[in-house]
Amino acid sequence: MSTKILCGPCGYEDNNKHAKKWCTNCEEGFCEDCEKVHRSTKMSRNHTLISVSDYQKIKDVAISQTCVGHGKRYDLYCSVHDKPLCIDCVDQHKSCSKLVSLDAVAANAKQSTALADLEDTINGALQNVGKFIKNQETSGKEFDKQESLIKKTIKKTREKLNQHLDLLEQKLIQNLSTKIINCKSAYAKVLRQLNLADTKLCQLKEEMETIKQMASDIQVFLGTRELNKTACEEIKSIKGIINSTKYFEIKIEIESSITSLLDCVDQLGMISLVERNSELEFKDVKLDQAQDQIYIPTGSRNRVIYLQLKQKLRIWKAGNELCVSGCLLLPNGNFLIADFLRANQIMEFDGQSQNVRYISCSGEPYYLTLIDPDRFAATYLGVNKIDIIHLRNTQVQTITTTNECRGISYQDGLLFVVMAEIGIVLLDLSGKILNTLAIDSQNVYSIATAKGRIYYTNEQKNTIHGLSLTGQEIWVYENESIICPRGVAVADNQDVFVVGFSSNNLSIIKQNGQGSEILLHEIGYG
């Protein structure tokens, strides 16, 4: 609920009346009668009056027209310090050459480019935030998809394990059944033989009893001899059966890998969370400098490139020799400069060309590449090593190499290094060589990488090369307008920017080496 605004002049007379208008100059409300007086007074007739309802909308916007230090209204403006001044502030700005009336400088402020720039900046920021919100919402939906996929993978893995265990169980039970049948068959065979022997012995016993009761002595004598012979043969057969009989004991031993799995594996899998920095970029719409538009045809339509001079670094002083061989823009807006003629030092400058510090290194720095916000790598011509230097504490990790290192580029955890007499060598950050791409590296000093591609320049042959990560040459570009190509950089869309050392220009080579355009002439050596 809005608060009622009272009339200032009436309030001074202890008469509380609601204001109808608000003066943005006086920062005071006026009732209908006081408004008429305010408009008719010579000193205030040009003041801006707005309705109280409009004032309610802007009253929470903190715009002070009073000097904090002196408590007086701002009357002047110092364009040197970009600061409004009251009458008492003037003493502190006596040496400033551009003191003007605040009314004069604020005239037509609503049509000023500063306000338009502010509108563009806010609108651009809203567009960025809208894009970021959409990206985050998309990321959340992607996370749901990833969760669903992982759950399906877990379930499918479990089903596969169950199916495999069922198969193993079936095979093991089948093997058990076969062995049981074989053992029981052996036992049954022996049992049949023993039962047969038992029957024969019983018959011999009956025959013996019959002879004993019914036969004569001679018959008993002769029969005993015959029966004894038969009984001995039967007993011998029984002994043979007993001696050849096997007794079985069936056991099971679970496969050691299965037991080890049960003992050692306490989970079906592991859920890992990969965290990486956002690739979103806040794109500024406000351009502080003039822009040149260059249209380059790409197929059936044009692509617009905006070239903008953002900063000039003045690092050369009279009497000092300088040879800038490497330059690196840091995330904080500072610059690192490798001066090949300055031994054991890499220069750091801020955006105002002020020398921030000298970073110690172990040679004459040649080429630089950024690894992360706190680390960069440096090479040294004539030296077989690479230094990884920490920006905060300037600690150095040295990677010793077999050959001289020249251009260097970092991409996706790998260092791509031009090594003399070898080619392009891929190393991890510990210095382990992962691959070597054989190229004619005799006159190759600059390299850049982006999105699975490697780009390098050959100064003597006046060629620019595009390679795959496996070393396969994708394209070679040569143009008489690019003489002695040296520095090379890559845009997000794989357009390649090349500095011609001798032709003294900056050119862009379109994707896949299908033509070039000069962007800047006479840029100075670089």
Please explain how this structure is put together.
The chain is an alpha+beta fold. The chain folds into three domains: 1-63, 30s Ribosomal Protein S18 (Irregular), CATH 4.10.640; 118-264; 291-521, TolB, C-terminal domain (Neuraminidase), CATH 2.120.10.30. The chain contains seven helices and 28 strands. The strands form eight sheets. The protein has a four-stranded antiparallel β-sheet with strand order 9-10-11-12, with no helix packed on it. The chain has a four-stranded antiparallel β-sheet with strand order 13-14-15-16, with no helix packed on it. Helix 5 runs antiparallel to helix 6 (217-244). The chain is elongated. The relative contact order is 0.04. This is B box-type domain-containing protein. Keywords: Metal-binding, Zinc, Zinc-finger.
